């Protein structure tokens, strides 16, 4: 077991705990670290890990899902996913880290500075479109969805974002594999990290009804900015 794998396992535990507790953050935690120590795993391993992660969160709080929002986000998500595949195809492998880091920092800053607003159909469509491109190309797609629901009750945010993610990740992962952008090693690494994912989700289930989502969200955003900047300058 290599030091890089152990670091990724710890990162998965932290990311799963953060998203399971606050509704977002796994990609923001995992993507910069994976980009630094195992860039070849991105974005396939990240998307694969988020399937069981979001499936679990969706099932745990299925009673709070905003199905109207899920429908509109998913429409935009499915229609715009090919744009993410196109971005991944035209960006050189040695520049993908810069793209991941830049996307992470930008997403975190936008989430941090966004004013209070009430989401509607336009917001859902916009969030779905942006998520389709950024998540398919880099694995980071949470902030647009979290922005749309950041002022809603925590259970609704967690469950609805998880439902939107689950639909989009299946589409993104399928297209990437069809296009030959995935690798057996990336999928195998994701499978090997599932136990770490389970630990993080188990820990989140112990505290998700008591933890301060505001403080947790601030931690994720600060971590994302620092990690993203490190990835951009490495």
TrEMBL record:
It comes from Metallococcus carri. InterPro entries: TM_pro_TauE-like (IPR002781), TSUP (IPR052017). It holds the Pfam family TauE. Keywords: Cell membrane, Membrane, Transmembrane, Transmembrane helix, Transport. PANTHER family: MEMBRANE TRANSPORTER PROTEIN, TRANSMEMBRANE PROTEIN YFCA. The chain crosses the membrane at residues 30-51, 72-90, 96-114, 159-178, 184-204, 216-233. Belongs to the 4-toluene sulfonate uptake permease (TSUP) (TC 2.A.102) family. This is Probable membrane transporter protein. It is a multi-pass membrane protein. It comes from the Bacteria. GO terms for cellular component: plasma membrane. The lineage of its organism: Bacteria, Bacillati, Actinomycetota, Actinomycetes, Micrococcales. It is found in: Cell membrane.
